[in-house]
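Entry for the shared binder. Reason: the reviewer on the internal report wants the predicted structure included alongside the sequence.
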Amino acid sequence: MTRNTFLFAGNFPTLTDDEINSAYEFVSVMFSGVLSLWGVLSAEIREKKRTLCMNLLVAWYLLDTKPQSASGVLGNGGMAVSSKSIGGTSLSFEGMDAQEGIKQLNSNVFGQKALIMIQGAPERFGIYA
């Protein structure tokens, strides 16, 4: 994956092709099952979903590991506030429900969008036409 093919390159303007590709390789191994999801859909839709999800996962990983390189990204990803404290400046966000292995995707907006896609894949429900 390069800046030219990374859908969210604009949110990471200072990253090189090597940094983006390294992130892609990492998430490709960590979430290898994503590339086999949506198999029951038409080839065109299946590939679009896989591409979008992998791009969201790369952006999630980059935002978590290189937050200083991000631009124009919401900090809490729209997560609901579960607790706050004014005097001691403490704030907690409530994450989306997820299985243990993918809860980490709640850490930013890109991960949450990938989580929604993964949890909504037909293979997770055994729904086949």
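Summary line for the report: The mean pLDDT is 84.
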